[in-house]
Amino acid sequence: MTAPNWLPSIKAKLLALLLLSIFLVLTVVGTLLSVGVERFHREETREVFATAQRALSAEIQTRQAFLLQMAGRLAADEALVASLNLVSRYSDPLHYDPLVFDGEKKRLAGDLVRLSSATDHLSLVVVDSRGQWVAFGRVEKNGQEAGFLSFDNAGAPLAWQQDSLSPNQWHAGRTPVEVEFLAGLARNAPPTQAMVRSPDGLMLLASAPVIRHFPRGEPLTVGRVVVAQTLGQGFLEQVTRYTPLHFGLLFAQGQVVGDIQALASEVDLSRAAPLLKNAGNPLSGWQETPRHFLMLFSLPLLGNEQAYPLLVLEKEGVNKQVRETLGVLLLVLLLAGALVVPLGQALANRGISRPVLNLLASVERVKAGQYDGIAGQAPGSVEFASLFDSLQDMAHTIRSREDQLRLWASVLEQSREAVFVTDAENRILLVNRAFVAVTGYTLEEARGRTPRFLQSGRHDQAFYANLWRSLKETGHWQGEIWDRAKDGRIHPQWAAISAVADAAGTVSNYIAIYSDLTEHKAAQDRIQFLAQHDPLTGLPNRMLLQDRLTVAIAAAAREGHEVGVLFIDLDRFKTINDSLGHSVGDELIKGVTKRLQDAVRESDTVSRLGGDEFIVVLHRIRRSEDAAHVADAVLAQLTAPFNIAGKELRVTASIGISVFPADGEDEEGLIKNADTAMFHAKERGRNNYQFFRPEMNARAGERLALENSLRGAVQRKEFVLFYQPQVEIRSGRLVGAEALIRWRRGDSGFVSPADFIPLAEETGTILEIGDWVLAEACRQQVQWDQQWPAMGLKPVPVAVNLSSLQFRQKHFKENLLDIVGDYPLPAGRIELELTESIVMEEPELVGAVLAELKQAGLRLSIDDFGTGYSSLSYLKRFPLDKLKIDASFVRDIVNDSADLAIVHAVVSLGHSLGLKVVAEGVEHEAELLILNAMGCDIAQGYHFCRPVPAEKFQAWVATYVPVPLRGGVPMPES
């Protein structure tokens, strides 16, 4: 008996079930889509209404803003303000003149229209300060109209209108309805912005007061300008140009305005009453009639009245869209069904064929390493589909692992760390390129060997035992290890070794990764060195100095010997650094370092604190005299000049010495006391050494207190200028004065300039003090210019001393000229006194600066001439006015022939250079007579007057009587 052919019946049942399922799905989807389409169109209708409402609100706001801007512009226009001011003025019975009054109103009406403009139409009204309507105007697309009011004999108002064809002609007429309506509102002073109901619908208003401003007195309101615009049919069309709506206005009395009047018979407006309750909500404030959709919302008007814009959408149009959408949806469903049925038939009739052959072919592709194309093989049944999916997953896994292996091989080869892999017996299987570069061994040379051939011999057996113990217990070890390369070089490395175990936990391989630490070690050593040494000289810095001094003190205390500390500070190093540059200064510091090291023993420590300060620690000295011998050696080493950058430089040093245990028991005390002794050496004239003595601390404390007090003395107004006269020797006339600073330090009295001027230069406060001195001298000059002429006195030039630190300032010239420029003084009234050291530091540069100062009207002189070093070749080229002979030469010219010869030579030199010569320190008449015989020009000193404050100097000038000197003491023969 043959087997029944039941396969076709199963296919038929499956096909029927498939078709039934498709029909049910299409039915449900069609129903849901129909409901969704209808709901969509209803929501779309609501959105149309909401869009129209937003358009209306936006249009109203735009027009209100335009009207308010127009009202403000008209109210601010000068011509309109002037016209309305005249109208208000001539409306007063005291000034009333009918012809003048009507003429002013004509001009006002013309200005009103002429000054306004609009794209649609505007109605304008102007009232005077009493609220009387005086002029009106209209501006439209096709023309403009202006008018004003007069009164007939009976007192009735009569409107006069301007002829549009002949603007100079006016004729009696009637004002437009909306203008009359607007005028009624204008007399009641409407608000700045409002919306009212007009005969033609709605009207927007904007008003602004017209204010007349006077040069003196309060502003006066002379009237008000009102601008209005009717929201007529053009406005309705503007609002609905983007929406398929009919639009109109509905008022509470039932009146309808707009294009919905034609629909009044079809739209039952009585049904709008429920809408009024929800007019503020665009979603609930609408309803559906048999043929239309309606929506209402409210607009508040002036006077507690409401207007209701009414939007009407024809329902037939919406339903037509719904039907069209549903028809398209039904056609799409039918086409989908026509495509699904043949597809189901093909699937039902397809037999279980060729899946095994496809599967076998796919397996062969995988074996050959061809992983693409498996997904495209149709399996034919669920079972075969599962097999194909498994085969595809297997192929993807194999490909992923192969890609991973290639990636790791690339990473291993490109890694900058040396890597090698061994087997379980620790025989090398694989090395990378970095391993070859570090060790020098190739893969062929290293393969099969254990890593023992890399051992440097710097690690013992315990080291390697701990390494293997960690690998066996944790599977990992890392640490620093030293290996030997093929060329014998021993280098440090950071190694990380890991054991690789299989699934059973048996170790199959070891992987070692090495990072070369050679550069890292060198960087560490460099950082450690820089942390304890000066980067410029390589000498120990303060930190290492303290460590070594601490060790030296401990050894001295233990063994019973002494430790010497020399604090060395180079004299006037800042001048070299500032004038020649920091590079020259650095080279000089290096040269000084070499000489200091040559002057001490190898066991001693030479350190640099920074700048030009050094400290030498003398280990294991027997007595204090040993430190003195070293200080002498240091000064002797510094005697020879330094040749740097083609310049021969000389430098000296001031040295302070402290000795353990007499001068301190710790490093801080010894350094501090040596520093104190160094400052004492500077006070003794520099280029010497001084041992610390306890009384120096008191002197150092006084100096520190003086320095602290010096800061801020200018702000505390503790400085005062004293003035000493300069007298022409031959005539006895007062020809100048020198300003000398004095410091009244709180309640302590005056501080000698010899004490605080050097300290001010050392701390830099001389810059602030110098600016104050110059400004105060200029201020005092201006005050004397205002007072002395009335007293019959003639003002004289005042000399001001300049510090070398001031002159070396970057913007010295500009700063000085700014100070002098703040005071109205004639040229030549301020004289600057400069020392020889200032002008000879950089003669070329100094000469250019002095020339500019001279051109600015300042006098220039060399102070204390003869105490420094001058090059006459440069001196003659400087634009100087005077030479001042130092008082140390003048005070002994009576008894000392050498001083007499020096003064005579300076006077002759000054005259040969065309300069006036001033002698300082003249205290006796005998000195004055000798100077006169020499031909010296000017004298200054106690013989005439001591330095005194400005008030006493003025009193001295007022009482001074010049005494001509007719003769002199003959010059003694040399």
Total of DSSP H or I helical runs spanning 4+ residues? 30
Q: C-alpha Rg, in Å?
A: 56 Å
- The structural class is alpha+beta
- Which runs of at least 5 residues are low in confidence (pLDDT < 50)? 1-8
Coarse morphology: flat
Q: Taking all residues together, what is the mean pLDDT?
A: 79
Whole-number total of structural domains: 5
- Helical residue percent band: 40-55%
Measure the end-to-end span: 169 Å
Number of strands: 36
- Order of strands in the sheet with most strands: 5-4-3-2-1-8-7-6
Major β-sheet, in short? Answer: 8 strands, antiparallel
What share of the residues does DSSP label as strand, in percent? 15-25%
Fold topology:
Blueprint (H helix, E strand, L loop, with lengths): L6 H70 L1 H13 L7 H17 L7 E7 L4 E8 L2 E9 L5 E6 L7 E4 L3 H11 L5 E6 L2 E12 L7 E12 L1 H7 L6 E6 L4 E3 L14 H5 L8 E3 L3 E5 L2 E3 L3 E10 H35 L5 H13 L14 H33 L3 E6 L4 E4 L1 H7 L3 H4 L14 H14 L1 E9 L5 E12 L5 E10 L1 H15 L9 H18 L2 E9 L2 H8 L1 H18 L5 E6 L2 E9 L2 H14 L4 E3 L2 E3 L3 E8 L6 H17 L5 E3 L2 H17 L8 E10 L5 E11 L5 E2 L1 H11 L2 H26 L6 E4 L2 H4 L4 H10 L8 E6 H4 L3 H13 L3 E7 L6 H4 L6 E4 L1 H4 L6 H16 L3 E5 L4 H10 L3 E3 L7 E2 H10 L15
Helix pairs in contact: 1-7, 2-3, 8-9, 15-16, 16-17, 19-20
